[in-house]
Amino acid sequence: MGSKAWYVVGLDNGGNANNATVLDDAGRFLVPGMVESPSLVREGPKAALRALAEAMEQVLEVANVQRAAVAGVGLDTPGPASAYGVISSRGSTNFVHPEWAGFDIRTALEDLLQVPVVYSNDANAAALYAHHTYFGAEEAGRRSSVSAIVGTGLGGGVVEAGQVVRGAAGMAGELGHIPLPPGGVLEDGQGLPACNCGNVCDVESLASLTGIEKNLLPYWLGRYPDHPLAAEPLPVAARALRGYAEREDPLALSVFDQQAKALGMLFTVAANFTDPHAYFLGGGVVVAGARFRDWLLGRVRAHTALRAEQREAAVFALVPDLDMAGARGAAIAAREVLKPAG
């Protein structure tokens, strides 16, 4: 790339919108907020790829960067997908169009844009951004972290020495499907929670919006039969629950404390396996008022069993800039791959 300035475009591809950013060769983001546009993923790969190309042109215009100066693109999408951007043959919540099954979105976008494309799943991208933002350029490469991203499902990311751990088959960091001992997280008489993946009592079966709807709310509404949410369909009640928690509703706090137990047990596994410098919590569950966010993070910390030495060495924090974390993390991942040696 020589001595000329070069740039990486980060593209966060979601079910409804693309979010884009630009990262320069010094590691500075040139777009302060979101540059958002429709993703068109429900219309199939052809329309979605065109929308990604348009998102790139739009953000380059906002950042005042010439197309010829772009060294590559960092792309992230929701899963399930391989570590190299091949969408699951079974499809997914976002990629419902039949042409998405087994589609190699990374290679297709690279062919369209004619620049290198580096793929990350959205949870890994958010985890990488949290890591680099918290530790900064000087320390990120010497630190480790584990992130749990709580949304419709539960994504995750493991970062060692500033790099996402991908694994031999590209499946490292699938933290949602780690099984938990039921006796440590379930109430007396509470049925075993089932995950969409087929597991029973894994982290996602409890710590996710799907887990709330399918497993937690039916039980807790039985404990609070007169609660207003008992009159609502479960999908509606599940989405409304965070608002009740912000008002310190007892049922809602019980549900989220049970999620915090599951996340604490997950981080306890991480403490004994990778002993990270930081534990990050992100996703839709923390898009809430500061009081509830701090309460939830505190409960996760309280349910994480650390040794005294680990408590002194590690921190618990929220994933920052949630709406931008995917695009920015994807750009960081691409920059690490594309930057010249030395």
TrEMBL record:
A GO molecular function annotation here is:
glucokinase activity
Q: Where are the transmembrane segments?
A: none
Pfam families listed in its UniProt record: ROK (PF00480)
Gene3D superfamilies given in the database record: 3.30.420.40
UniProt keywords, alphabetically: Transferase
- Reported EC number(s) for this entry are 2.7.1.2
PROSITE patterns xrefs: ROK
Q: Which EC class does it fall in?
A: transferase
The record's InterPro entries line, in alphabetical order, gives:
ATPase_NBD (IPR043129), ROK (IPR000600), ROK_cs (IPR049874)
Q: Which family does it belong to?
A: Belongs to the ROK (NagC/XylR) family.
Q: Which PANTHER family match?
A: BIFUNCTIONAL UDP-N-ACETYLGLUCOSAMINE 2-EPIMERASE_N-ACETYLMANNOSAMINE KINASE, ROK (REPRESSOR, ORF, KINASE) FAMILY
The protein in question is named Glucokinase
Organism field = Nonomuraea coxensis DSM 45129
Q: What is the lineage of its organism?
A: Bacteria, Bacillati, Actinomycetota, Actinomycetes, Streptosporangiales
